[in-house]
Amino acid sequence: MPNFAVPLLDNARKASDAMRAWLALPPSTPIDYPFADSDVAQLQRVSADPDGFVLDDQTWQDLLLAPWLAGVSNEVSIAGRQELYRRLRTGLSDPERAALAHRLRALQDEPTRIDALKEALRTLREADTEIAALLFEGKALMPPGWLGWRWLLPLALIGSIAAVILSPLAWIASAAVLYTLIALQMRYHERVEAWSRSLKTVQLLLGAASRLGREAPGGMPDAAGYAGRLNHSLSRSLVARFSPDGGAYGDWFALANVRHYFRTHALVLRERAFLQTCWMHCAALEADAALARHLLANTGWCWSDTAAEGELVIEDGIHPLLAAPTGLSIGLEGQGAFISGPNGVGKSTFLRMLGLNLVLARAFGICYARSARLPTLPVYASMQNEDSLQGGQSLYMSELARAQALLAAADGPHPGVCLIDEIFRGTNHVESVAASAAVLDTLAARSMVLVSSHNLVLASLLEHRLAPHCIGRDDDGRLALAPGVLDRTNGIALLGVQGFGAEIEQKAQRVAAWLTGYLGRPEAGAHVLACNGKPRVRDCKEKPGTHDSVPGSQAA
């Protein structure tokens, strides 16, 4: 690339870095701009397959994916953040995951490449405006007809000022010309300023692409050189760049900034395909480097193998956002899981751990565990349903809406794994159990379901669909997940621990003893759904007490 084609800004930055190195000063560190979530989501939005799967917002929030992304994308530009977000939201196909694993292994084997990529793409972190929407959806502007005659305005101004010598009335013409210039400047000011920020990001992108060397975008000869030349074409004139006022006089008296706005906008759209390639390529390189850097800095992860249909195995899985996580293991084949355990033991944390690792396995092929064999299926979570005062929606109605969404997904083109925490908390116990059993029985017939609940009777009601597992402490006091159902609850005991007093605790124990005769025998419900309520086979034989009354019945 000839020297004259190198952008002035890039040369200045190189000179600054050289001076800093000569003075033994550390290189300047870009300020990572705090982009809104909607900006980070733009690349996924504009590039998404309309028929493809996209992780929904509730699952994103329930699984705490935003904090995980923030940790991985530290010192990453908006381009890299957008690509990491896109992969998390949509996942990758099997060939794409295999190719990513190959690239990540290569970067881990050669850490200097990670540093080189970070340095080459460093200036992209100076961008304060995202441009994915511009590059993929930007529409051409129609320049105003007067733009080609704008040069007449400064001539008219000079002429009218000169004419003052002949007649003071010439000031009227000067005022008219000045009014026209100011009015046009005010009319286009906001658009020009917004475009200047977008154009800055475009030029930072081209500058980064021109410095990539062997990592430059493929598909065309001399891509790096072409990026440098295009960057030069988008720059302001030499007069504007070298003038002490930054070209302000030319903007106010010759509308140079307005002309530059229309000219560069047309040039960016004309080169849209190349710029899209550069954006996607730089975003992918930066995302890969960020992931490889994160994996090198952490030891508690593994590559996830793809599970067979209906299979899910994770050994010592942990949640990376916890300061001192305890690894938990589970293995499922042909069934989902019903998770029970005492209050506060970590059932919700287990589901979040599993959900996060399922998403990461689908997006990157990795998992925070000793080993894992996970399905690369879409993930749906229902863990933080809340009532809405503004929306006029109760907790139960919110839970019902989410349950309908999960059932619709199971019947749609992208069935997957459903993670449900404390289903149907917003209604009375009897109807909560009834509704939960009915929905989960239907949902688990179509998708893999893992659900946690304190309603232990659901374990027997759904044992033909969900394998019961219990989280608790082993003999050494360590958390463990084992087959079975919780047999010792702690809800009433916590009343005493939290200082409610002996009187309240004793009253609660009396009520619990009374209820136990009706609702505390989970084995009594084993036949209700498995055999459609009819004891016809050996596994569904009628058990003593099956038809005992419940509180509120006629017998009671």
Structural class: alpha/beta
- Structural shape: elongated
Mean pLDDT: 84
Rg, alpha carbons: 32 Å
Strand content: 5-15%
Which stretches are low in confidence, meaning pLDDT under 50 for 5 or more residues running? 1-9, 536-556
Strand order of the largest sheet: 8-9-10-5-11-12
The number of helices is 23
Span between termini: 91 Å
What is the number of beta strands?
A: 12
Largest sheet: 6 strands, mixed
Task: Estimate the helix proportion, in percent.
Answer: 40-55%
Nutshell version of this structure?
With 556 residues, the chain is α/β, with parallel strands linked by helices. It is 51% helix and 10% strand. Strands 8-9-10-5-11-12 form a 6-stranded mixed beta sheet, sandwiched between helices.
What are the salient characteristics of this protein?
alpha/beta, elongated, 556 residues, 23 helices, 4-stranded mixed sheet, 6-stranded mixed sheet, single chain, 12 strands, disordered C terminus, 10% strand
Verbal overview:
The chain has 556 residues and is α/β, with parallel strands linked by helices. 51% of the residues lie in helices and 10% in strands. The protein has 23 helices and twelve strands. Helix 10 (152-163) runs antiparallel to helix 11 (170-210). Mean pLDDT is 84; it is low at 1-9 and 536-556.
What is the topology?
Blueprint: H1 8-22, H2 37-40, H3 42-47, H4 57-62, H5 65-72, H6 78-90, H7 94-109, H8 111-120, H9 132-137, H10 152-163, H11 170-210, H12 223-233, H13 238-242, H14 248-254, H15 256-270, H16 272-297, E1 302-303, E2 305-306, E3 311-317, E4 328-333, E5 336-340, H17 347-363, E6 366-367, E7 371-374, E8 379-382, H18 395-411, E9 417-421, H19 429-444, E10 448-452, H20 457-461, E11 466-473, E12 479-483, H21 493-497, H22 502-519, H23 527-530
